[in-house]
Amino acid sequence: MTAWLLGLGIFLIHVLGILSALLALMSSRTSQGAVAWIISLVTFPYVALPAYWVFGRPRFYGYVSARGERDTVLRRVLIGYRERLEPYRADPGHGDIRAVEQLAMMPLTSGNRAQLLIDGEATFESLFAGIEAAEEYLLVQFFIVRGDALGHELKRRLERAAERGVRVYFLYDEIGSHKLGDGYLKDLTEAGVHVSAFNSSRGWRHRFQLNFRNHRKVLVVDGHQGWLGGFNVGVEYLGQDARHGAWRDTHLKLEGPSVLGLQEAFWEDWHWATDEVLSLEWEPRSTCEECQNVVIVPSGPADRQDTASLLVQQAIHSAEERLWVTSPYFVPDQGVQDALRLAAMRGVDVRIMIPERPDHLLVFLSAFSFLPDMLKAGVKVYRYQPGFLHQKVMLIDDHSASVGTINLDNRSFRLNFEITAFVPDRRFAAEVRLMLEQDFAACRRIGYEEIEGRALWRKLISRAAYLMSPMQ
């Protein structure tokens, strides 16, 4: 009897593996990901089956449902705010910016001031000054919050803001911030701060959606000032961690109508996490003298298309003279790889800046699998030397640049909620170019011989790591 039940159990597992493989075939967003899951589910379902239902789902269906509810419950607010943005809508001009607007599902707005914040000291000084200046409300969102000295400094400032009557909303990703203690959150709550995890697995229907993470880093003050970029909250981001050493990162401060794009993204995330509809200020305001155009591009696994990957591909295809990209994790999908090679072949100065020191070994190893083809096509790859490189920046010719949270890997392209500020402005692009020129001066360039000269076993490991990358 026991043997019969065991045989039945094995049979059912294999049947479920085949059915899940068919689901992967029909729903995976990339052919590479579909093949990887199908082989795993059919040949070894005992491990692959639970892994697929936790990590393999291609879209965040719970968030999609909540977005549908938002379209009915919150539509009046959204329509009213978009109508008030009309006087600030900028003419996108050529089709490149129109494509970015279509991906963003948000308008390009004028009347903004975009300020680069380079490295941790400047960034957290600006963030904390914004918190102290808040009068009505604060929207605070990070992927990682540590309970260390910097995390406690953030907590003290949020508590003081709540004590002086500011409405404070604190949203964190429970996976990225899994080490954050309950005491930290309890202190915030007792001080009057509204606290919520992103709750990617909220509700029984979504309990397997553990692979979707909110990677956004956003701070909004009273609907008129906003921040986004690469920085989370922890002492390593100030270069005070022995493992990572010096930390190279970039954040962005925005003032003007574009801040409402950051606010809308937070508003939607908060509604998913809590079912609450926040009452916020939606009146755009511009106070700058030399204003810039900005479009905010939210992206994530609830989108109908791969917004983040398409945004990067659009930037590559629009470049005529230079395309400089920095990313701590560089395992782009095939579309981005092909676009980078083609840009280099048509004479664009394509430069990719990545860290010298690995942060995630699998991602680090994966890059060696496809770098030879990119180097042969003329793509220039640089490794940053002084410490860990974490910034996510793009420079397109001399006219546009972006700062945000998107890494050039499958997770950012398809699994994470991300957000990017795209700034088609020559003055801002010149500032980004100067910043990146200084960074490239601190890099070493990788040669084709270096990659191809590795031992065979290293090449095999790199290839295996690359084949697994769509499953991450």
The amount of helix comes to 40-55%
* Mean pLDDT across every amino acid position: 85
Largest sheet: 16 strands, mixed
**Low-confidence runs (pLDDT<50, min 5 residues)?**
none
Which term fits the overall shape?
globular
Return Rg in Å.
23 Å
Q: Count of helical segments?
A: 17
Percent strand equals 15-25%
| Annotation, overall tally of beta strands | 18
Rounded to the nearest angstrom, the distance between the terminal CA atoms is 40 Å
Descriptive overview:
The chain is globular. The model has no long low-confidence stretch (mean pLDDT 85). The two termini are 40 Å apart. It has helices spanning 2-27, 31-43, 45-55, 61-73, 75-85, 95-104, 119-133, 149-163, 182-190, 259-274, 307-318, 334-345, 361-377, 410-415, 426-440, 448-452, 456-468, and strands at 109-118, 137-142, 167-172, 194-197, 213-214, 218-221, 225-229, 246-248, 250-255, 292-299, 322-326, 349-355, 380-384, 387-389, 393-396, 400-404, 416-423, 443-445. The protein is 46% helix and 20% strand. The protein has a 16-stranded mixed β-sheet that branches. Strands 8-14 form a two-stranded parallel ribbon.
Secondary-structure map with pairings?
Elements: H1 2-27, H2 31-43, H3 45-55, H4 61-73, H5 75-85, H6 95-104, E1 109-118, H7 119-133, E2 137-142, H8 149-163, E3 167-172, H9 182-190, E4 194-197, E5 213-214, E6 218-221, E7 225-229, E8 246-248, E9 250-255, H10 259-274, E10 292-299, H11 307-318, E11 322-326, H12 334-345, E12 349-355, H13 361-377, E13 380-384, E14 387-389, E15 393-396, E16 400-404, H14 410-415, E17 416-423, H15 426-440, E18 443-445, H16 448-452, H17 456-468
Helix pairs in contact: 1-2, 1-3, 2-3, 6-11, 11-12, 12-13, 13-17
